[in-house]
Specification:
Elements: H1 10-17, E1 30-36, E2 41-50, E3 53-62, H2 65-78, H3 83-98, H4 105-108, H5 121-138, E4 143-145
Parallel strand pairs: 1-4
Antiparallel strand pairs: 1-2, 2-3
Bound molecules: zinc ion.
Length: about 150
């Protein structure tokens, strides 16, 4: 049985303390607000698109270490990806943290540090909030609330 502390691996702590791409993009082509009321996590995500490619990505918000580090790592992961690649990555990440699929380390890379989250149902929404918000931005819906 994994201990919750194992979730807070070095890489997660690093990203939560020094989040990457933690800025508003102005102007942005897409943006969306995500909230996870259960934990109090909030994120606003900004995307700049160039053709079908995510040219720049930024986020602002506040929340627990898991939500913040997941948002930071998500922004790093989708930058330079096409919309389709970003959506595919969302699916892989979602399958991993909900435990519905086998994580493909080749696809997910560093994101596999969140694999342990699947054992903590209350943390799944923290870890996936930024991803749902990114997908909402691509879908051009302004808001997503984790229920
Ligand atoms: Zn949280």
């Amino acid at each position: 049985m994994a201990d919750l502390r194992e979730l807070y691996q070095e890489v997660i702590l690093d990203h939560s303390r020094n989040p990457r791409n933690f800025r508003k993009l102005d102007p942005a082509d897409r943006h969306a607000d995500g909230t996870n009321p259960l934990c109090g996590d909030r994120i606003t995500l900004y995307l700049k698109l160039d053709g079908g490619t995510i040219a720049a990505v930024g986020f602002q918000g506040q929340g627990c270490a898991i939500s913040k580090s997941s948002a930071s790592m998500m922004t790093d992961a989708v930058k330079g990806k096409t919309e389709d690649e970003a959506r595919a990555l969302f699916e892989s990440f979602h399958d991993m943290v909900t435990g519905t699929g086998k994580p493909d380390a080749k696809v997910l890379g560093k994101l596999t540090v969140f694999a342990g989250v699947s054992e903590f149902p209350a943390r799944v929404k923290c870890a996936s909030l930024a991803w749902h918000t990114m997908k909402a931005a691509l879908d051009q819906s302004d808001k997503v609330t984790m229920e």
